[in-house]
Every structure is written in structure tokens, then in C-alpha cells.
Write a structure and sequence with these properties.
229 residues, mainly alpha, 0% strand, globular
């Protein structure tokens, strides 16, 4: 909604994401498993550090720590931006409190940014306190992150299903950016997402998070139904 020349920039961004996934995710995993057997990776500590060290880069741990911290800061910055803008939009549409619609002189929804920052702060506190209460093996990051996976999948299901319905109703021959192999690719993606959820249910660390995600979606859906004009 805010990008200039969306027909060009959105297409460029989507294609860029595909290549980044292939290079940085699949590519890095491929390099690691060519050096270490896949069933021994969990025994060597950080696979990235071990791989770099194996090829003679002695400062591997420092490099990886720098990359991880930089990536975490980048992800945090992106999360604050996108979440604050979402709160601003929801407030504009009068779906949540109007306080999040306030902006400063630069047009930044500062109340929304502050609210998100407070949420991050409480997350840090929980990460410190919960292991002291529930035991040192408690990993609040896994719980919080995986609890957000299921609600995070909902928009993807909506996008995939909406896209299939769109293609059925609107036959645009000269569309500048058609999804390859649709609607088969839509169906395959939906199946893969469902398999991820099933896999999380079989994993002891993420099972509770799926349940939390289901409860969260139920509460939000009920709230939306009640608030619907």
C-alpha cells in the first residue's frame, strides 16, 4: 500500500525472496550436510561455526555471533515496523483502540511503536524469569516463536485460497506477474503448511505452542465476530 510503482517493485521483491531462500537457507544447509552427516549435526554445537572452523577460519565463532546479532537486530527492527503499522491500520479501521492511530510530527505511529517495544521488553523478562520458575531447560523463545507460527500461517492460507478464487473469477490474460503452476502450486503449498502443523503436534517442544496458537486464534476470531458491525 505504500510502495512506489508496485507493479515493478513488488515483483522484484517477490523474486528476490525466492533467491534469498535458495541461497541463504537451502544453500547453507547443503554446504553443512556435505561436510557433516545430517544425523551428527546436533552433536557438534553450532554447525555454522564447526563448518567454518573445519575449512580453517579460526574466527568462525566471532563471525557467526556477529551475523546472528545483526540478523536478530534486523528482524527485530522489521517486526517493530510491521507490527506498529498493523496496529495503526487496525486503529484507523476502528477495529482496535484509537490510541494507536496517533502519530508524531514525522508521521510515525509512535504509540504503536512504544506498545510493541513494551511487548519485547516483557519477552526479555520472561526469558530470564521463567527458567528460574519452571526449570533451566525452559525455552521461552521456542514457546513464543512456535505459538506465533500457527496464527502466522492463517494469512498464508487466506492468500492461497483467495488467489485460487481470484484466478477462477478474473481471467486476466495480460497479468504482469502470474503465479507459476497455479492452482497446483497453491494446493501443494497448503498441504505443506498442514504437514508443518502436524509435525509440530508430534514434537514435544512445539506441541503446547500449537495448542496455544489454536486458543489464540479462537479468542481473536470470537473477538472479531463480536466486534463485527
Amino acid at each position: 500500500g505504500e510502495t512506489k510503482d508496485p507493479q515493478k517493485n513488488i515483483v522484484k521483491a517477490i523474486n528476490g525472496v525466492v533467491w534469498r531462500i535458495l541461497i541463504f537457507y537451502i544453500g547453507s544447509i547443503f554446504v553443512i550436510v556435505t561436510v557433516y552427516p545430517w544425523d551428527e549435526v546436533n552433536q557438534i554445537g553450532s554447525p555454522f561455526v564447526a563448518t567454518f572452523a573445519k575449512v580453517g577460519i579460526t574466527a568462525a565463532a566471532t563471525i557467526i555471533n556477529f551475523v546472528v546479532i545483526t540478523a536478530a537486530m534486523s528482524g527485530c527492527n522489521s517486526g517493530i515496523f510491521s507490527t506498529s503499522r498493523m496496529l495503526y491500520t487496525l486503529s484507523k479501521q476502528k477495529q482496535i483502540s484509537q490510541i494507536f492511530y496517533r502519530t508524531n510530527k514525522n508521521g510515525v505511529p509512535h504509540i504503536a511503536v512504544i506498545a510493541v517495544s513494551i511487548g519485547i521488553f516483557f519477552g526479555i523478562i520472561l526469558d530470564i524469569v521463567l527458567p528460574l520458575i519452571l526449570g533451566k531447560d525452559t525455552n521461552i523463545f521456542v514457546y513464543v516463536f512456535s505459538a506465533g507460527v500457527l496464527p502466522g500461517m492463517v494469512p498464508w492460507f487466506a492468500i492461497l485460497i483467495s488467489h485460487m478464487n481470484f484466478r477462477k473469477r478474473e481471467q486476466i490474460k495480460d497479468h504482469p506477474f502470474k503465479m507459476p503452476f497455479a492452482p497446483v502450486s497453491n494446493i501443494i503449498t497448503i498441504i505443506m503448511l498442514v504437514l508443518v502443523v502436524i509435525g509440530m503436534l508430534f514434537n514435544a517442544e512445539t506441541r503446547i505452542s500449537v495448542i496455544i496458537g489454536i486458543v489464540f486464534i479462537a479468542i481473536i476470531s470470537l473477538y472479531a465476530f463480536i466486534k463485527k458491525p
